[in-house]
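Query form — protein Beta-glucosidase

QUESTION: What is the three-dimensional structure of this chain?
INPUT:
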Amino acid sequence: MENNKEPLSLIIIIIGFMVLLNLVLEVHSAEKFTITRHDFPNDFVFGSGTSAYQWEGAADEDGRTPSVWDTYAHDGYVHGGQNGDVACDGYHKYEEDVKLMVESGLEAYRFSISWSRLIPNGRGPVNPKALEFYNNLINELINNGIQPHVTLHNFDFPQALEDEYGGWISRKIMYSLDLLHHNILHMILGLSHLYAGKNYGWSNNCAL
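ANSWER: The structure tokens for Beta-glucosidase are given below.
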């Protein structure tokens, strides 16, 4: 038994030394690689981003209709039954979120437009409530010195168009997309610093 204790004690000492060495190296690394705003060019823009389905919530309010994500999340494919019905509740709390952006020192915010909110069912007249919301959000960002960066489509395809066309595999969808594109450009003209047609556009094109 005594002979077995010596190797065990040695192992404990070695483990303790390695833990201590690791802590010392972590502290040294943190000091060595501390990054501040001054390490970036003056014109470098710090920002954050969200997608409409992840952030807005208000899934069935003010005329919004389901997107493919609503259908997917409610069909039991997401662990724990989670969905975006409420999400971050940005639809109601966007002013609070912009304040948090200001406090965090952000200079830009990238967000996407919910197609099924702005144009319910994917085509037809623009939803005035949605137009009001996005205009208010953009103006709130600008008034607080934050650049709005708008994305047209972030995977939340209107379920109505999915059912009718089968999604992006139909060329007919481009007519509905053009309508969305036209209305968004009209809404943000002169306000947004950056406009992107699709999130991960290159990945989408490769998949198609």
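ADDITIONAL NOTE: DSSP finds nine helices and four strands in the chain.
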